[in-house]
Amino acid sequence: MNPSQLSGLVWLKRRLGLHEEAERQYWGLLLPLFLLTLFSWIDHMIMVPLSAEISAATGLSPVRSGLLVSVYPAAAAVSAFIFAPWSDRLGRKQLLLYLGTGFVISTFGCALAQGVESFFLFRVLSGAFAGPIMPNCLAYAGDALQGNRRNRALTNIMLGFTLASILGVPVGSALAEWVSWRWTFGVIGLGGLLSLLWLTSIQPIATGAEQITIRRQYLQMFGLWKRQEVRWVFAMQFFMLIGLFGFIPHMSIWLTTNYELSASAIGLFYMQGGIGSLIGNQLAGWLLQRGLRFSLIGIGSVLMGTVLMLSTQDLLPGPWMGAMFFGIMLGGSMRMPGLQTILIELTGKEIRGRLMAMSMIVSNMTMGLGGFWSTGLLSMENGYLLGMDRVGLVSMLTLLVVLPLIWLIQRQQRSTPQPAI
Length: 421
What we know:
- By secondary structure, the protein is an all-alpha fold.
- Helices cover 80% and strands 1% of the residues.
- It contains 18 helices and two strands.
């Protein structure tokens, strides 16, 4: 072997070694972020199939059971405002440790709650602590990684929603049916605790905003609204969610009363939806690498709106409702990586935590409002829930509003240079 071949082999081994080391570091920071996000998603989503059972166990009116779902994001929106400056001041890791601790304690509280009041209290606390977890995990990945690795990490973190649908919700629903819904929350709390312990191993990252006063940080956060592009993105996010979350809080009571389906059957539908979400997420990740963002949001919104409108007309027999879950979550998972990438690229890391917190405030306030506006369209008559067809129609119309907002944001990006914040 001549010297040039030998030096080539040395170069190749070093390159492969550096690649392997980079991959180990990538997964070392990604997995604890992913797992904590996963269990916070399961905690949020598990209320959909369990709300009818928990409302019956605690004495809550079936028509009001959707509030068990809506109170969680409403609390998350308030906590996002409170915690927003601390993400940039303390750093993502430190805040995630505080949030994770509160999430674990409040989830165990849900498992031990004895009545409507105490259960609502712990759901509020769960939302307050768990809600800001995902945006801070995304912000940490945005700080730590660049380019395609960043896009890959954002897509992988969003897979927490998919895995929660495929495994978390079905297993949690089955556990509630076989043993008790209290055990479901206990297992979620244990998973959150183990994720939290792993999170201690990741490295803290300086944001550059550690010395800025809290007052100044709040002023900078509100200053984001001065940018027209930011306002349009948040408006788009609002219409991406307001109709969908008018439907989701009432889905369990609708399927159990009108179709006589059990919580475990609804959990299996979530598994089918999770498969759609997995396909959509992988498709989004592939297209995101090719620069597509807004197209994903537009196509996903139209698909979701069409499925919602058709499925709420009571055209499908009960066993076919899994197709509804598949279509809704396929469309939804196509949209979210594109939205998160747009948000990450709007600012530098010194204010990214507050931008993601503001996005989470918009998101959770919208999800909370969804359960309230749609409740007025529903009524019970002879044990049959009426009004879901109207909810589905409104949901489709709101999702169609996303399309002109995409056009406005793209026009704004083409015509205005991005200011430094």
